[in-house]
Amino acid sequence: MADAVFWALVALATVTGLVTAWALGANSNSPPFAPAIGANAISTMRAAFLIGILAALGALTQGGSISETVGAGLIDGVQITSLAATAGLLTATLFMAFGVYTGYPVPAAFATTGAMVGVGLSLGGAPVFDTYRRIATFWALVPPVSGGLAYLTATLLRRDDVPETVGVPLLAAVVGGIVANAELSVIPAPPGATQNSLAGFAAMLVPLPGVTVVASLLVAALSFAFIRKRTQESVDRGIKTFLVVLGSVVAFSSGGSQVGLATGPLENLYRAELGLPGFVLLTVGAVGILGGAWMGAPRLLQATSREYAQLGVRRSIAALVPGFIIAQLAIALGIPISFNNIIISGVIGGGLAGGSAGVSRRKIGVTLGFWVITLVTSVAVGFGLYRVFELVLGPA
Fold this sequence. Notes:
Its main location: membrane. One of its GO terms (molecular function) is phosphate transmembrane transporter activity. It is found in: Membrane. It is a multi-pass membrane protein. The chain is an all-alpha fold and 396 residues long. The chain has 16 helices and two strands. The protein has helices at 2-27, 34-38, 44-62, 64-72, 82-102, 108-122, 129-158, 164-181, 198-205, 211-233, 235-263, 267-273, 278-311, 313-333, 339-353, 361-393; strands at residues 75-76, 126-127. Strands 1-2 form a two-stranded antiparallel ribbon. The longest helix is centred in the last third of the chain and has 34 residues, at 278-311. It starts with a helix and ends with a helix.
């Protein structure tokens, strides 16, 4: 009987995790390709197909660090059981569903982090204040850093003395250099490590000083040359090509940064209790994200592409470049983030470069206030929901 209850809870927790991953795939991965659709560089259905594939690949190859933080780094002294994981995931999913239904900007990272802290406290665990400070500092820096980078990017693209045949390829070079240093689980790594980057792999093959820097510069130079050639042939075609490439790497990053919000609560269940490798759990999350992107993204892409079309190509690029940079930094540090938070901040920063057109201070205030409310409320709901489950079903 005990075994039957255990496996029933495993199934329930897994299904809940899949639903959460589906919601993330449907809602959090649309912005990267919206500018390309708005510029008629790619069709909506093709973009939705690519988003699903790329976000799922990002989840599989880059999602491990954030998954571990959400699953084991937020509470000390207790293990997240299957029942606790279900309570945390249900709380986060309910908050995301509320945001979709009401139109309020509910950040998935805030809801999931708060829910797991609440569940962990309900289990009798101790807060990990050092981790909270690190996450809170990163979250607080996201709006000014994303907005600031977007402002600088938009300013560069608007300068008359910097032709688009130079400005756009320069941004491509920055993206290429970061791609060269993005750590992936599919790249052979040195002993004791599970991930490596293209630049790191080059240093393994040629163990000489400065090889990592040379490899990064080489990828950046190739990226610059490719986009410059396209923009010299046709500025419009070159920008559209860059929008598709940029959308691809940002969608990949969004999968890596978001999957941990769905798989993190299941870390202890899958890896400690079931003894399965982390790749299996990430596969569950990737499948959910893939399904959500393919089934839910087309409708959202049509809506968001209209919004980005109104922003214009320059402001769209300015919003996405910081998104890619910050997402990769968060993945490297293992910090759960709200991808929409990054993009919204980037849109605001790009708007300020054009004289604050379309930037509503009231909307910014409402958005920030709702983010704080989401974090605090999700802690309380997660705490209470687990207590209800425990009362009805008993500890598990």
